[in-house]
Design a protein that fits this description.
Strand order of the largest sheet: 1-2-3-4-5
Oligomer: single chain
Protein name: DUF3828 domain-containing protein
Number of domains: 1
Distance between the termini: 28 Å
Shape: globular
Helix content: 25-40%
Order of helices and strands: EHHHEEEEHH
Radius of gyration: 17 Å
Keywords: Signal
Strand content: 15-25%
Length: 187
């Protein structure tokens, strides 16, 4: 089922000043879209504790590097890579593609009015925690993942200056999806 961002954004703007704990995968996907579109909601409110910790560790390391070399842009100088591309999209639609006992996958499709060919889709990996759903990872384009990027951002570059290739774990995520034990996802 697809949801248009305009309807979702209005519902969230009227209903809550901050992000409420999503009770369905679709609600989490919609809340994530709102956060990506207008920047007023903090997507950190939507995360599993382990993803939140991974981001805190990565941002602390990023701050250390920035303090040591203030004239150089650190690896996460643009912030957490919440989506495959940093450009702000004009549209954001979600679709729950898979849902099993305590886990779900939600496609988030970003669109650009001036460049329809630039549309792309990332996939949110969600875990149910009690009565609410939380974001545990994002499969970005080219099968890169948010967790993989957070880990590889601080690895040494090769002699040519190219950044290291992030761990490609999307297939592991998908394999785990069918037989997952909550909290035991591979990174």
């Amino acid at each position: 089922m697809h949801r248009s961002l305009l309807v979702v954004a209005l519902a969230f703007a009227v209903a809550t000043p901050a992000l409420a704990a999503p009770s369905t995968p679709d609600a989490l996907g919609s809340a994530f879209c709102v956060a990506m579109m207008d920047g007023t909601a903090d997507p950190l409110d939507l995360l599993t504790p382990s993803l939140n910790q991974a981001i805190e560790v990565a941002m602390a390391r990023n701050a250390e590097l920035q303090a040591a070399a203030p004239d150089e842009k650190p690896p996460l100088g643009d912030g957490v890579p919440w989506s495959s591309w940093p450009d702000k999209p004009d549209t954001c639609e979600t679709e729950v593609t898979e849902a099993y006992d305590g886990a779900a996958m939600v496609n988030v499709t970003y669109g650009f009015a001036g460049a329809p060919e630039a549309t792309y889709t990332d996939t949110l990996i969600l875990l149910q925690q009690g009565e609410v759903w939380a974001l545990d990872n994002i499969v970005l384009t080219d099968n890169l993942t948010l967790r993989g990027l957070l880990e590889s951002a601080f690895e040494p570059r090769d002699p040519c200056g190219s950044p290291p290739q992030p761990k490609v774990v999307a297939l592991k995520l998908l394999r785990n999806f069918a037989s997952h034990a909550q909290g035991a996802w591979l990174t």
